[in-house]
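Chapter review: from sequence to fold.
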Amino acid sequence: MGDRAEMAVFWIFTVPLIAASLGVVVTKNPITAAMSLVGAFFCLAGIYVLLTAHLVAFLQILVYAGAIMVLFLFVIMLLALQEEILGVSRIKVMQGFGALGCVGVFAVIYRAILATGPRMMPQVGEDYGTVKAVGRILFTQYLLPFEATSLLLLVAIVGAVVVAKQRI
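The token string follows.
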């Protein structure tokens, strides 16, 4: 793919990614925010494809947009958060911190882009990003963090069920 075409595809994925990310931060409805996050995950997977990280793009859609977001939606529906419970002033404070955080992240990204300047993409090996290579690294070098993450997700699910059960 040519440089101009690659840049065009990058912007085709980036503009909706930024819009969906802002939708996560700005919207009041948690279900709408979660669905905006799903859209952001899909756009991010497209950017991963541009970086020739096809396995990461596939896992982004399968794991994050699929399994994790279904879990998030399940927990949101279990908790059934309402504005009366949270309080309108608390929601405004959370939105303000979210907007401030977005501005800070964009400022850091902008400075990083200016500092690095244009660079060529590095050439990678033939087995880079394959399931075999990622599996070998994941289940040898990163086995403890992988298992800790799965345990953390299990504890979060149990905690959400316990919180929801006490409210009923």
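Two observations follow directly from the output. The chain is about 80% helix and 0% strand. The chain has two domains: 3-81+123-167, 84-122.
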